[in-house]
Amino acid sequence: MLLRRLERKDLDVLVDWLDDAAFRRFIYGDDERLKRQMGSHILALLGGAMSLPTAAAGHFVCDAGERGPVGLAGVFDLCWRNRSCIVSTYRSPSCSPEDFYGGACSGILEYCFDELNLHRAGARVDARDEAAWRAYEQAGARRELVLRGHGLRDGQPSDVYGYGVLRSEFDVARKGRTQEAGV
């Protein structure tokens, strides 16, 4: 899976994703915003402003080649002083968790460590999204906390897992994945 910058050609896909509550949570953290407000923010993003209203350091399209965009990955709460950030991913309903999370999670972490030269990245993952938190674990992240009832999904409280990974831990996991693949 390739992570790339958003482009104008992605507009139709992003607008289609507005119907997905998970996409609205990815952008705003809640599901209360109107589609029109989100649509105007997406248009502004594609019109030249390179940040969504979440104060992200960067959003990337998760591109599955011929299938096209299958999700987004973002870097949030970037702190240059501490060389740390929070990452997040959104998977479109058209892509299975197995096909998405491994590439998206490791891809955004590679960006954080290889391009931004960060020391640490964190992620908050809904406890019910096992494919997501397992992908972060395979990328070297450790579960550092459980936020009980921190999320609200479909009107019900949901636990959220807090993960953290240091560059050195990610490098060890990446080396292991490379050796397993025989590269």
Secondary-structure element series: EHHHEEEHEHEEH
Q: CATH class, please?
A: Alpha Beta
Number of helices: 6
> Segments where pLDDT lies below 50 for 5+ residues?
31-35, 48-55
Outline, from the CA principal axes?
Answer: globular
Task: Evaluate the radius of gyration.
Answer: 16 Å
Total domain modules? 1
Explain what this protein looks like in three dimensions.
This protein has 183 residues and is α+β, with helices and mostly antiparallel strands. The chain has one domain: Aminopeptidase. It is 38% helix and 33% strand. It is built from 6 helices and 7 strands, in the order βαααβββαβαββα. It has helices at residues 11-17, 21-28, 35-46, 97-115, 130-138, 167-181; strands at residues 2-5, 56-63, 69-79, 84-91, 120-126, 142-153, 156-166. The chain has a 7-stranded mixed beta sheet, with helices on both faces. A hairpin with a 4-residue loop joins strand 3 (69-79) and strand 4 (84-91). The longest helix has 19 residues, at 97-115. It is globular, with a radius of gyration of 16 Å. It starts with a strand and ends with a helix.
